[in-house]
Amino acid sequence: MRPAWAAIDLKALQHNLRLLREKAGHRQLLAILKANAYGHGLTRIAAELQQADAIGVARVDEALALRQEGIVKPIVLLEGFFEPSQLAVLAASQIQTVIHTEHQLVQLERAELNTPLKVWLKVDTGMHRIGVEPEETVAFYRRLQASDNVDGDPILMTHFASADTPEVEQNQQQLAVFNSLQDSLQARLSISNSAAFLADLAPQDNWVRPGLVLYGVSPFADRRGQQLGLKPVMTLQASIISTREIDQGESVGYGAAWTARHKTRIGILAIGYGDGYPRNAPEGTPVWIEGRCYPLVGRVSMDMLAVDLGLDSDIEIGATGVLWGPQLPVEEVAEHVGTISHELLCNVARRVVLDYGDEN
Ligand SMILES: Cc1ncc(COP(=O)(O)O)c(C=O)c1O
Fold first, then answer.
1. Among 231, 254, 273, 277, which one carries the catalytic annotation?
2. Structural domain contains residue 307
3. Which residues lie below 8 Å from residue 109, measured CB to CB, with a gap of 6+?
4. Which of 217, 251, 284 is the C-terminal boundary of a domain?
5. Ligand 1 atom nearest 98 alpha carbon
6. Are residues 63 and 189 in the same domain?
7. In a domain, 222, yes or no
8. Which residue numbers belong to the known binding site for substrate?
9. Which residue windows are coiled coil (predicted)?
10. Which of these, 67, 73, 206, 217, is most buried using a 10 Å CB contact count?
């Protein structure tokens, strides 16, 4: 028996990469590996990315961990540096930076670097999270071009607020803002995350930035990854460590939050919110065990959760439950929980063993 573990299917990853590579055609692929490669293991996933052109992360530490593991591919820091002291570190390790504020621009201009950095200039075309104002963009771009600390022409990037609903008007509004800048800059462009890429929202991209789809998961509410030809990479699993019969009216777990409506049998799986399984998963969230789904009942504990096995199943101690994976799409679990697959995947906790099947 095992507590929570996640089998990581590297063949599925390669399958997804091939599919994305084909779809990208002449466009380059910036594979997004932030948040521990969406819970799949940063350095191990990075080592499998022969088919990608560069890697995107959110923190300097993530970029340095990749370099320490001998990853030589270009790495892009998606929110750029946070402190000017990090600039020398980026230069020494050849890490590319996004610039999204005047603050960063000035610090970059003033820095004394041995090697210039490759830079991506992020424009706020309407998401209003990070990025320079459209009307300031041309001046920013020219300053970057003029700086000795910048290697070559910056790549111009933006990010959609609503790419997972490609039909909404905001996407076209953002694109119109971006396109008007491109008229004066003629820069290389990067616009699309997974959803925008699959929905062909921005075919003018030179660089696409897929994250979620690499891991085989759909960015759209109305389709699963498998319907898009993708294969889920992670199977989150745990063993059944206890079963018991309970009578009608008996409750299960903390706060007696669930009470049996009739006599039944409960199975306890060795996984809980301490492993990253969401504590707010409601009654009825499916768990797949030996060929079918059983409903979660009661509150998720730190190390355990309960499922209602019913009286007719022959599931015993030692059986393996799948919390999500090819048998039970993470998209479906996310729907039950009221969140997105991104959050479920990247919350998988450090104590969950990532099993790459190396011993086979
Ligand atoms: C700037 C940027 N590009 C691309 C991505 C990848 O997004 P997704 O996982 O939806 O493909 C992200 C992730 O949030 C991002 O912040």
1. 254
2. yes
3. 143, 147, 149
4. 217
5. 1
6. yes
7. no
8. 129, 302
9. none
10. 217
* CATH number of the domain that residue 111 is part of: 3.20.20.10
Looking at the structure, do residues 292 and 150 belong to the same domain, yes or no? no
* Residue whose CB lies within 8 A of the most ligand 1 atoms, among 121, 129, 190, 193, for a mutation test: 193
Number of domains comprising the chain: 2
Q: Which of 78, 79, 197 to mutate to test the pocket of ligand 1 (most atoms within 8 A of CB)?
A: 78
Q: Which residue range is the domain that position 192 belongs to?
A: 10-217
Q: Is 174 found in the same domain as 243?
A: no
34 an active-site residue?
Answer: yes
If asked whether residues 238 and 171 sit together in one domain, one would say: no
Among residues 11, 23, 34, 273, the one annotated as catalytic is: 34
Domain contains 226: no
How far is it, in rounded angstroms, from Cα 285 to Cα 160?
31
- Check whether residue 36 and residue 182 sit in a common domain: yes
Domain boundary among the residues 217, 244, 262 is at 217
- SS3 assignment for 204-239: CCCEECCCHHHHCCCCCCCCCHHHHCCCCCEEEEEE
Cα separation values, 135 from 130, 140, 145, 147, 204, Å: 15, 10, 17, 20, 21
Å from CA of 32 to ligand 1 middle:
7
Active site residue 254: yes
Closest ligand 1 atom to residue 159 Cα is: 1
| CATH number of domain containing 316 | 2.40.37.10
pLDDT digits (tens, 9 = 90+) for 217-259: 999 999 999 999 999 999 999 999 999 999 999 999 999 999 9
The dihedral region occupied by 279, where left means phi > 0, alpha psi between -120 and 50, and beta the remainder, is alpha
197 Cα nearest atom in ligand 1: 11
pLDDT digits (tens, 9 = 90+) for 292-324: 999 999 999 999 999 999 999 999 999 999 999
Task: Give CA separation, 99 vs 55, 115, 240, 340, 360, in Å.
Answer: 17, 17, 49, 28, 44
Q: Which residues line ligand 1 (CB under 6 A)?
A: 32, 78, 159, 193-195, 209-212, 219, 342
State the pLDDT at residue 289.
98
Q: How far is the CA of 261 from the centre of ligand 1 (A)?
A: 44
